[in-house]
Design a protein that fits this description.
Strand content of chain A: under 5%
Shape of chain B: globular
Helix content of chain A: over 70%
Oligomer: heterodimer
Largest interface: A-B, 44 and 37 residues
Amino acid sequence: MLIFTVKRLSLMILTMLIVSLLLFVLLELQPGNVATKVLGPYSSEEQRTLWLEANGYLEPVWTRYLSWLSGILTGDFGDSIRFKVPVADVLWPRLWNTAILGFWTFAILVPLSLTLGVLAGMREGSALDRAISITSIITTSVPEFASAVFLSAIFVFALGVLPGTSGMTDGFDPLQLFLPVMVLILYDVGYVTRMTRASMAEVMTTPYIRTAVLKGLPFSRVVFRHALRNALIAPFTVIMLQVNWLLSGVIVVEFFFAYKGFGGLILEASLNQDIYLIEACTMVAVFVAVSTQTLADIGYTYLNPRIRLA
Amino acid sequence: MSAPAKPSALFYNATTRLLMRVLRSLAVLRESKIAIAGCTLVVFWIAVALLAPLIAPFPPNAQIQPFAVPLAAAPDGGIFLLGTDQLGRDILSRVMWGARTVLFFAPLATASAYIVGIVMGLAAGYFGGWADDVLSRVSDIILSFPVLVLYILIIVTIGASGINIIIAVTFASAPGVMRIVRSLVLDLRTRNYVAAAQTRGESPWYIMLVEILPNARGPLIVDSCLRIGYVIITIGVLGFLGLGLPPPDPDWGGMINESRALALAFPHMTIIPCIAISSLVLGFNLLADGIREVSLHD
């Protein structure tokens, strides 16, 4: 178990290193491009050369990569071109806003989809199972931007009960979180439900469940005491991997609702060619994604005694 | 002695046989109501896309009369069944032509991702060893990106155009296909017919493509339906974020993006393309579910 954990962690570090190298090659290999992006397209050749010299861009590539990497590791990402402040000053508050969004999404998504999945999977083929399965196909088929439009049409235009944007311009307003969180949940709940259902349905066909039913245990006891423990191992991994999906989802949702979060920031950075901000955002996004994958792997191994004790 | 069959006749026979097989497997789908519903939606949109030049009431980019509500009368005596957008273009015609765009690029991009993913997966699963290590590691790294971050990075770097969307989809989706193919090959390569082909001295790629791949088709067909739906969403998202196909040609995601600011006053402009894209994706997802259901019965 310990060896597995160490192996998995070192793999994660290796992945991060390769991603950082790729990013560096993609964005910074040619110093001329960097100078143009930082100083703008109308800067003179002389200005660019001076800037390159002053910022150490004329050093050999490897020295530059290493100093860039150490900057990222110490949280020094350089200055944002668009916001004219250090990247860290925009990045962390935005990330915190997205964490709030993510927290509420997961706080509702997890219990909801697990309950629906278990209800559907415990009696495979029942009317309830059919209804839940078809509903989850439908919700998964509606892209986030479309469900954002539909929900806005209902709650903002028709009923007028929720605000249509979530800019939080007059301080934090919990009402403005409703629609973004609903959109994120709606898109994801179907997938997690189906995975839980599949896992539950599989467990329900195992001999030990049949034994429990045949020896006359009440059905609720069979489900809660016998089936759930095994049926919830697989969904654990699925839920952890949803963090990666969520990072994509927040880009659309934050753009749609003008929410000042990480997803909106990464889009804004890319559209404005804000090179240091793109680098920082991508590294953070990949770090979050890779570390949740690693946690999912380690957690799965820990939860499953057949692997843990093998 | 009978004369040898003409090549054209041979070709004709092979085509008819293939067509019959496809039709027969489609007939099996009757067993599943879900598959029928999915098939209906997909066929409907394919028909709309093919017939768009004939059935669209107006040219898709013609600016006729802005801000017409659904069912308003057009100046030339026709009717704007679904209204017009902020530039006066008929929404129904744009949705119809937009179906063409999405049903051209989505299958093409998916097919391209499949070709790359299948070749990678076959090689990784069949050869194993360092080929597997390298290919799996590369896939892991690509898949560790949040997928939309990857799309945005690629599109911002190489620019937004049809061909670049296909490149981006291939790059981002091929690793997922590769993983599925690889796991299927790991199972199939231990079968007797593969050993027989190896004993006959067939080349590795012949074995992979002719012996192994056809037997892996079941899960791949289901996955391709799901993936095509996802690619449609991706193209829509890119259009919605302003990174899709360049205007003015109709593209559902772009239509939503352009009319979004006016949604408060004219919600129909935004809602109609949203319904179009959702129903097409739903069609593919239902189809995938139905095929899986039918294949489990056998």
